[in-house]
Design goal:
By secondary structure, the protein is α/β, with parallel strands linked by helices. The chain folds into 2 domains: about 1-250, P-loop containing nucleotide triphosphate hydrolases (Rossmann fold, 3-Layer(aba) Sandwich); about 330-545, Rossmann fold. It contains 19 helices and 18 strands. Strand 8 and strand 9 (about 240-245) form a beta hairpin. The radius of gyration is 28 Å and the shape is flat.
Length: about 550
Amino acid sequence: MQIKNLSMMFGMQELFNDVNLYIGENEKVGIVGVNGAGKSTFLKIIYGILEPTQGKVIIESNKRLGYLPQTIKDEIENEDITVLEFLMKARPIEKLNLELQSLYIELSNVKEIKMLKKIYNQIDKVESKLKYFDSYNAESTLLKIISGMDIDDSLLDKKITNISGGQKSKVAFARLLYSNPEILLLDEPTNHLDSTTKEYIINYIKNYKGSVFVISHDTSFLNQITNKILFLDKKEKSMELYDGNYDSFLRLHKIKEENILKQAKIEKRQEDKLRAIIEKYNNSSGKRKKMAQDREKKLEKLLKNKIDIKPNLKEVKVSVEINRESNNIPLKVSNLNFKYDKNSDKNIIDNLSFELLKGERFLIVGENGIGKSTLLKLIIGNLKPDSGKIEIGNKTDIAYYAQEHELLDENKTIIENFSDFNISINKLRSILGRFLFYGDDVFKKVSILSPGERSRVALAKLSLVGANFLILDEPTNHLDPQTQKIIADTFKEYKGTILLVSHNSEFVDNLKIDQTLSLPSGKISYYDKQIVEYYEKLNSKKTSDKL
């Protein structure tokens, strides 16, 4: 892949400028940088979804690209088919076989040599595609991927629109792998994956013969699969390619930054020395005047090539205060039952009972699709239970952070999403600035924001509610490691009650969790880091045998 004179602007915001790079074939490239550096935009340019402002990305012709976006939405939501049908559509084998059959029928009725040659050429092309998609072994390949990604057989017959967000991500990923691309473009592929699937993906990518470009805030994942790191520098509006994995990049980048700072200090001393001589002898005559003139030339040359140290990027600043104390039991759940398919005998939430005490930090764990997000939606009233009771304390003020940011209005701008708050424009702009939205940023529609930026908007709204009970569904998804730490520190100091779903064990371990609810069993236990690690490593030993 060759990146040639690549520049990208969004309105007045410049993401990168005049980038020139060459990346060899079959490299495993991790794409890193702070939120807003243009990582997702860059993948969309490669895939052809976006046109750059200037320049181009050159890929060898006929290379098949496969793209997994951060948010799995439109493609799946518009498909009224089963999970298995959705997966099988990734390889157009049935369509190609029908086309081949039609061509052979057409061939039997043609007598002109010119037309015969044309049909034979078409047959060759179709057969070449069938060979590429390995039509004879395709079914076993798909079953292998289904097994490796731990997609339960019972899921295959469900409508794709009726499965959970985590399951949709897993199914979309499986479909991408089955489509057999030569270049994989992956945007935060591990966000919704349990450890079983994650280990399978790690092994799959390690053995993958094509090129991989992956954006991930999961540094452990990057360390295991990458041999190159492409750093998008938001300060410099540039890209730089480093050899090695993420840890190697951090080490090399730190050394480079330290050397630049050392060089800048040397140049500053030289500049001060030259300016002092010029100032001292500028109004003199003879040799001293010539010395001053000589130093002026040297200073001009130094300033022309001087290292420009740009100020460090600002960090997110989060503060979540409560307006009032809740009562002693802000939430009580009794004998709760719920299922999406009312004709099914199996409940997603089955006879569940628990209660939270004021100030408690309560973690929900379990595999994808087991009902964690469903339980949160039942508690906030987005879904109605089939039976059982959910009691919210009369002094309980709830703020909900949705995993898919569905509480944000995509058709409105950032600032319009805060119209419910009685706050002056100047104060709101100040608050949004703490979440790194400045100037005209606030007039961007939510629909064009990256998932990381949407996360910051959702967190900004959360900070303004003054709620004494936070319900959080995967709050660190899409956030860079630096912002994740800031969020963890904020929630650690929060004075209210927290009900949390998270796969991020490092984040969870910093929150001082009191109790853990395991689904589907409904078992409640005191927090133990090993419980979280268990769900991260669930069945990971088996996955290497599934490749």
